[in-house]
Amino acid sequence: MTYEQLLTETALANEQVIVMTAENRALVRNLPGILGKRFIDTGITEQTMIGAAAGLALRGRIPVVHALAAFLTMRAFEFVRTDLGIPGLPAKLSGFIPGLLSDGNGPTHQAIEDIAIMRGIPNVTVFAPADEDDLVKMLPQIWQSAQPAYTRINTRKTWYEHAPFVLGKAEVIAEGTDVTILTYGLLFEQALIAVEILQSEGLSVGLINMRSLKPVDEQAILTASAQSKLVVTLEDHFVTGGLYTIVAEVLLKHQTTARVLPIALNNKWFKPALLPDVLQHEGFTGKQIAEQILGYKTTHHQPEILTPEFSE
Amino acid sequence: MNNFNEHELRATALNVREHIVRMSTDGGCFTGASLSAVDLIVYLYSSFLNVNADNLADPNRDYLFLSKGHDVPALYGTFAELGLLDKARLGNHLSLNDHIYWHPNTHIPGIEFHSGSLGHLPSVAIGVAMDIKISGGGNKVVCILGDGELNEGTCWEAMLVANAYKLDNLIFVVDRNHFQANVRTEDLIPLEPLADKFAAFGAAVKRINGHNFTALHEAFSAYPFEQGKVNVVIADTVRGKGLPSIEERADRWFCNFNADEVEQLLLELHGEHQTLLTSETLVVR
């Protein structure tokens, strides 16, 4: 099932759902014809769209709102905070091409602080699916919840079949005593490769797909930290405010500590290029991740990374 | 003022269009939106603006801000033709070894400010125009906007402020190609009567055919249009201008052609051929 199929089904089953976009039609191309008046394209007006979503939600609607993640979370930030966050209105934000998925667009389009700023707003929940299968497993609960939500849309296809989603719970893929990788979003695909390499180097390796970043699964973080000698936070986000920070907050809150290695974008925007080149250049391929954890080079093979079928 | 030679301008614009077609592969670019802006950008750098490879650091040079951003292949191509950018670098489009990607950035000499997020550079241009007023310079400041970009409220905030500060050294140029990313502007968020809107905000407005160099020259030669008023030029253009097989096609927004299509489109630019496009259409914003 695709994002658009799920949204179509959801909107047809629930008359309260309104699909909105700031002229970002990639995910909702067929919906104008299907939903008629319940499809609203406000043009390139992210702020006005969020304000309008608040107005619709005031009237009991559930707006599912689309724009590029960078403009949805940053251009409209204060509207999200003030018009959705303060009253806690259940608008559902779908941010397109978040993180490294903006590949060749450049820093203007890089949403790599989106987790940090969205999770900082009281009432706003934050989600980051690993791939399309994860996305369509997560969204029904996200859309049914009574809170405003921001989802990092990721429609990449992987071979992995995810477990059912429970809001606020992480998906434990594997447990390990040497190292556990905590990740979310696009890099899950590379983490799977890294785990294989680390295992073949003789390590006992855990992997957790965080899925729900707010509310976060504190127990999953605490268990991994207690079980493993090393915890790795892997994210296509600034090192500030994302998963590394979340792990630090959770460990401190529970008055414990752990050896944590952050693999993230360290205080810089990434070099714009096509996605496979970006992953390689920024050190985010599975092989590079594994080698950073190991501390030495290996002869393992990095599988080919496919270019996304969309661009902005 | 630079010289005006329509024959030369046409030849330069055709070369720029060839560069754009060559960048529309191996990852692609915003081909249609670039083609609509070519004649404007070529005209401004060739015949209106006092900007060249030798005066990029001179505070008395003129400024061009490309707020539309995604039409940057037209700017790269113009820079390559006018000697501001080594032509060989256009082959580095999307390469990790250069800075030539889908939106402008200041690693490319001559680009005054990065863009890509719409509705930012009208305000940056205002700041530059204000300083020129304060410091008493004679430089001109041009800011190119897309018509879809005019959806963003900051464009209209900028008009209010430019009017309040009587920035007659500032020229907003609208590349009026009548398309948003996915649909015609008038079918989504209607802009017309656009000239009246700008006039009501206090601007001195000219509306011309943005592919007609004589009309462009006549309009810009009248700068400043009216003392104490911000200048607006609405340039009516055609998205995809020069390539009939993509002109005014909503489904050819972002183009990533295959090698064979590129060769055929290069012939099409010279008017001898119509290309049958088979590459997947990518229409995303």
UniProtKB/TrEMBL annotation, chain A:
Domain Transketolase-like pyrimidine-binding: 1-157
InterPro entries listed in its UniProt record: PDH/Transketolase, THDP-binding, Transketo_C/PFOR_II, Transketolase-like_Pyr-bd, Transketolase_C
Lineage: Bacteria, Pseudomonadati, Bacteroidota, Sphingobacteriia, Sphingobacteriales
Record Gene3D superfamilies: 3.40.50.920, 3.40.50.970
Entry superkingdom: Bacteria
Protein's UniProt name: Transketolase family protein
A Pfam family reported for this protein in Swiss-Prot or TrEMBL: Transketolase_C
Automatic annotation (TrEMBL), chain B:
Keyword annotations: Thiamine pyrophosphate
InterPro entries, per the entry: THDP-binding, Transketolase_N
Record Pfam families: Transketolase_N
Reported cofactor(s): thiamine diphosphate
Superkingdom of this protein's organism: Bacteria
Boundaries of every Transketolase N-terminal domain copy: 29-265
Family: Belongs to the transketolase family.
Protein name per Swiss-Prot or TrEMBL: Transketolase
The organism of origin for this protein: Mucilaginibacter dorajii
